[in-house]
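Course exercise 7: structure representation. Students receive a sequence record and must write out the corresponding structure in token form. The form below is the worked example handed out in class, using GDT1 family protein (190 residues). Read each field label carefully; the graders check that inputs and outputs are placed in the correct fields and that the protein name is recorded exactly as given.

STUDENT ID: A-19
EXERCISE PROTEIN: GDT1 family protein
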Amino acid sequence: MEALFSSTIGVSIAEIGDKTQLLALFLAARFAQKNAIVAGMFVATLLNHLISSVIGVWLAHLISPDMMKWGVGVSFIVIGLWVLLPDKGGNPDSRWLKYGAFGAALTLFFLAEIGDKTQIATVLLAAKYQEMFWVLSGSVLGMLLVNVPVLYLGEMLLKKIPAKAMRISACVLFCFLGMLTVIGQGILLS
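STUDENT ANSWER:
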């Protein structure tokens, strides 16, 4: 259950202010079928983070526990610093919109997550815990907890959550967890 909790919290915090939130807002403005967007987002995140979890568990079997500790710890610190950089939303590729709410959400969310900090965090969490199911469940839950409200509450919600403060909080959390992992005192990551 620790892997589920850590994955949910870590991915949720990393996701705040991410480009996929802007994508959710864009899709909500474009399509009335919010449930179809949620379903597409869920399937895309599940597939993307399943691959990430498999890679993380695979890496954990290849690398010694001491090297894994250092790699995960330093990587968490790097992700912490990375979240300080606001994402450039850009315009989602409109060619995918012709596939409807579900198809557009599925395709655009899957593509947006490739190489994203939440995908990398999922790889690291799976490597740390070697519990693919719980890490995958937590990372998908974390993504949905942050992005689904954006679909239904839209701009009102984004105006009330100061993105800069959330990025700083996420940075501090990831750097703290990274340092605890490196020194072997992980609270959530031991």
